[in-house]
TrEMBL record:
Regions that span the bilayer: 12-29, 53-69
Single biological process term from Gene Ontology: non-motile cilium assembly
Main location: membrane
Gene: TMEM107
Keyword annotations from UniProtKB, A to Z: Cilium biogenesis/degradation, Membrane, Transmembrane, Transmembrane helix
Origin species: Geotrypetes seraphini (Gaboon caecilian)
Keyword Transmembrane part of the UniProt annotation: yes
Keyword Membrane listed: yes
Bilayer disposition of the protein: Multi-pass membrane protein
Subcellular compartments: Membrane
One GO cellular component, as annotated: MKS complex
Full protein name: Transmembrane protein 107
């Protein structure tokens, strides 16, 4: 039974780590988009790459929501 008791703190720490990563990604989103563009780019290229990065951010948020709000068995 000690393994079961240690799973809850590790799950919590994993969730908190994911949340910190998501917040960091949102704060540095512009820098991440600029990093994948050439030195000279157009506004259309920027908006295209920015739109491409959005589903990845939403996927991470959904992961946190599913595992964070999941009902724990009694």
């Amino acid at each position: 039974m000690p393994v079961v008791n240690s799973l809850v703190p590790s799950r919590f720490l994993t969730l908190i780590a994911h949340l910190v990563i998501v917040i960091t990604i949102f704060w540095s989103r512009e820098n991440n988009v600029l990093a994948c563009l050439p030195l000279t780019y157009t506004k259309e290229q920027y908006s295209s790459r920015d739109t491409d990065a959005l589903p990845a951010c939403i996927e991470i948020i959904l992961f946190i929501a599913v595992f964070g709000l999941k009902k724990k068995p009694l």
